[in-house]
What we know:
The chain is an alpha+beta fold. It has 15 helices and 31 strands.
Amino acid sequence: MRETCICGPERRACEALRNGKAENCLSCSKWPKVTLNGKLSDFCSKRCSKITFNSAPLILHINVSMESFEDVSKQFRSQWKHPTHVPTVIKIWKIFCDKQHNDQFSRYRLSVERTREIPGGNSKRRWHGTTRACKIGDSEIQPAVCNSSVCSLCGIIKTSFRLAKFGHRTNFGRFGAGIYTSATSSKANDYVQEQGGSPYKAMLLSDVVMGKAIKLTVDSPSLTQPPAGYDSVVGEPGRSLNDDEAIVLAPPLVVSWRIQPSKLLRVIRRAAPSDRNMIRTSSIALALGDEESCGRDARWLQSVQTARPRSEGRTTSASCQQSYTPNATCCYPGCHKGAWQNPDGSYSSFCSKKHRDTMQQSNGPSPSVGGAKLCKNCHLRPVYVDANRMHEFCGNRCHDAFQGGIRGAQGIVRAGICKLPGCQKPVYVGPNGKPSDYCSRSHHAQGVELCLLCRQRPKVIINGKMSDFCSNRCKDDTFGSTPVILNISPDMASFQDVSKQFTDQWKHSTTKPAIVKAGIWKVYCHKSHTDAFMSYKRHVERNTHITGGNSRRRWHGTTRTCTIGDSENKGALCKDAKCSICRIIEFSFHKGNVGVFGPGIYTSATSSNSNAYVKNLGGSPYKAMLLNDVVLGKTIKMTNSSTSLTEPPHGYNSVIGEPASGRLDYDEAVVYRNDAIRPLFLIIYNG
């Protein structure tokens, strides 16, 4: 029978596989892996990648001839510090976690990277030994994850690491309740237990976000989180430790996603002098694709690695002559952001599509850096590229400055006026001749508000309104981590606005309390409640023809049993069911409080009135109150109590209790729907 003729790139791909100059796709094992942005992917096509990530959690076998097999084996051998014989690595498997954990891990790593200004959040590969009660990974026919509650290894692959399970086996931790890993493979081997009758041992190599680590040599078993200002604990060999340990911690009962078993699972043969150099045969990879369509995407086949020996190395992007690792930064001139990580785990040469496309399209006779044409005005940044059109300037500011003569062809600078309202001084001009928008650093700090999340870049204006964030990236990271609160600096306009409302609406004769320095926090509710609130708000607006559904900011006082918000490092929600502040931030309001107008959700325009309902049960020296966004819609004003109400009278959306002699001393606003209100700000003030 004649063989089917394969021409073009498919033929070259098959020849590369036969000659051992290309690596098989981990999923289908029929087509070569492709190189994306200078880094070798795990798959041959988008189809194989999609099939794998849709089937996660799962493990895929890594052939002994692959470069990653040798890389991990070398790390295992070099980090075996015990005086015993070094075991032989038999099999290595790549772990693909479920999308939810991958997303949470990536968000946390990005958060640490931005907060600590450490590339990649100081992400390290660390070993972890645990219990295996099955034979997963012993052979290619045993890749399935078991359902045994005793098998910690399969539990980690399915749901990742969990602080709640800490100590169930050993009931001991030198540095408290955390997730323990080690850079020493032999140290992690001490914790490996085989209960499934396998002749082999299994160990995990995990990706751990260390962030800013504190080094300790003395035991500290009372720790429940890293010391203030740190993200992890590194136990160094010394008084009580023979080998290193790396620990990430978080408050108890919180699922931690600071460590990800996404690297590799290996099965090692128990060491014996006679088999340390045993020769192993190649294994058959797990096939998830079909022969007819898998790997035939022309766009992917064009990027198949060229037929050259692995020892010669793989080429990287022409615009950035370096090998990309999780700690790499964007190659775009002047950009210091981390390189984008693709869904398959590989890294791009740039942080975004915009920077990638600019570097690819902006070539010309003008001055350039790395092939990118530079701005005609500042000669510092690459020009802006919009679709297929290449502009002459990097942005509107340089365009306007050039047109206005701030920088002419001879490089003459005409300084403008400081943008801070009320200041008429000329702007500062730097050594490079580039004018600032402000006359001094102090006026720049007053005039520019930094992003609430990263605290590094200015907020942006969207549709004429100041956003809370500097970019969609910070915005998505925040809303992807909800419910969460972010601190507002005293120099921000929103701090002054909320503080003024609090003071102006204090009507009691008592002394007006002062808001503490870091005492205003922006509340971001869970997406489901925010969506429900906005939907109800639009519904009321359409039915009542009142702009914004008559949305008002109203105060609400309630019980707090913790110290959330007392300082800048106390932004985590507690788990106490009696802490109404944290439960409202976490789940929003729930109708049920019985008052003078029946069971509803009560707020007030008078801050001192809400203060009467504030209770502190957590030992804090301060008081806490919520400022909320309430959709009042069409209101009915009442002066007499009506405890039988369960909803507003027909044709109305809310009830306003007005002060009257002998009845109400101060106003009350009552809504009878959970989606009619959401918390906006948490205010901490002197009691």
